[in-house]
Amino acid sequence: MKAYIISGPQNLGADNLKLMDIPTPNATDDLVLVQTEAVGLNPVDYKLADDGNQNWHFPHVLGVDVAGIIVACGKNAKTSLRVGDRVCGHANLEENGTFGEYVLMHDYSLALIPETVTFEQAASILCGGMSAFQALYRKANLTGKSTILIHGGAGGVGSVAIQLAKRLGLTVITTVSSKKIEFVKMAGADHIIDYQTENVTEHVLKLTNGQGVDISINSISNEEIMQDILNRLAYNGQVISLTNSPFNVNMLDLAEKGLTISALNLGGAHRFHTLSEKADLATMAQELVQMIANNELDPMIGKIISFDNLVDGLSALKASQVTGKIVVKLS
């Protein structure tokens, strides 16, 4: 099969991805072999390409999101999955990934794609969409809450988080650059702050009568921004952070306002042996594709590209040249 690989630890970097012929893997144990129809591109892809992972075996196939068709099931795979099923899932970034014509997926991670949902739509909603879903439906304390600040509302996480937050009845404030204002309007944001020209903290406090927001979702990797985010929270507010940047905050500030910082690590479910959390990967994906089928969620795909142009797609994503999700179509 053809796949995009990193040949070794000395050849890290998205620019060093090579499209090569490698053996098609076999489905064993709980593994399921999926013929890839579409993959979604995510910031984690180029970050992993640049930084690598200590548990990789080389050559390593990059990619974490896939939509496709089951072509083989391991003998211990759950019986609800069958050859011919249309499925999607978020892969374990420590194992060979989804940027190939076939990919091995753990059975617990796969959701069935409704017939009215395309492979491209399903592939687009996984890493970012599941992170947004986990933030709002698994992490957020919504009791008595009414306002949310979503940093980076035009990103893969932010655009889905805006839509989910509106479904939950929250008033949504988001930050974007000026060129992406219309995009987050389409997503449904109530208030939009241009972080390049406006003081975000002042604007948030003005919109909330000086109280601050109840919940903040942050997917911006910037150590210095955390204190600013805390200053935008109301009493008993909560920030849900999707980054691995260090938190340089004063614990007394947290205690004074009763604030909570919740860390979110979607892919961590693969690496810890908690069966319920692993199974929740498929549950969250299933909820999201069903929302698409019900016309309750727009995956907001910005561009669909060919498999041959995957590396260019990663470069465009890294340079923020495309607004909306970039999806690679294989067939």
Overview of this structure, please?
It is a single chain. This protein is an alpha/beta fold and 331 residues long. It has 2 domains: 2-125 and 269-329, Medium-chain alcohol dehydrogenases, catalytic domain (Quinone Oxidoreductase, Chain A, domain 1), CATH 3.90.180.10; 128-263, 3-Layer(aba) Sandwich (Rossmann fold). Helices cover 31% and strands 27% of the residues. It contains 11 helices and 16 strands. Strands 3, 5, 6, 7, 8, 15 and 16 form a 7-stranded mixed β-sheet that branches. A 6-stranded parallel β-sheet has the order 11-10-9-12-13-14, sandwiched between helices. It has a 3-stranded antiparallel β-sheet with strand order 2-1-4, with no helix packed on it. Helix 3 crosses helix 4 and helix 3 packs across helix 10 (275-293). It starts with a strand and ends with a strand. It comes from Leuconostoc pseudomesenteroides.
Distance N to C terminus: 14 Å
Helical segment count = 11
What order do the helices and strands follow? EEEHEEEEEHHEHEHEHEHEHEHHEHE
| CATH topological fold name of the largest domain | Quinone Oxidoreductase, Chain A, domain 1
Structural class: alpha/beta
CATH homologous superfamily placement of the largest domain? Medium-chain alcohol dehydrogenases, catalytic domain
- How many separate domains make up the residues? 2
Profile the largest sheet.
7 strands, mixed
Strand content: 25-35%
CATH class of the largest domain: Alpha Beta
What helical percentage do the residues reach? 25-40%
Low-confidence stretches: none
From the spread of the alpha carbons, the general shape counts as globular
Mean pLDDT: 95
Radius of gyration: 20 Å
What is the total tally of β strands?
A: 16
CATH architecture classification name of the largest domain: Alpha-Beta Complex
